[in-house]
Amino acid sequence: MKGFIFNLRTKIITGPGTIQEISTELDRLKAKRPIIITDKIIREKTDIVTKIEEALRGKKDYLVFDEVKPDSECSIVNKAYQVGSEWEADSVISVGGGSSIDTAKGVCILFQKKGDIREHQGVYILSGPTVPHIAIPTTAGTGSEVSHVAVIKDEQAGRKLVFADHFIMPTVSILDPTLTTSMPPSITAHTGMDALTHCIEAIHSTENNPVSDALAIHGIKLIKENLPKVLNEPNNLQFRQNMQVAAMMGGAAFTNAQVGVVHAIAHSIGALYGIPHGLANSLILPYGIKFNLPECPRYKIAAEAWGIYEENPKKAGDKLAEELLKFIESLGLPKTLKDVGVKREDFDKIAELSIGDPSIISNPRFAIYPEAIKEILEMAYDGKI
Ligand SMILES: [Fe+2]
Question: Where are the alpha helices (DSSP H) in 237-312?
Answer without folding.
Answer: 237-257, 261-273, 277-292, 299-306
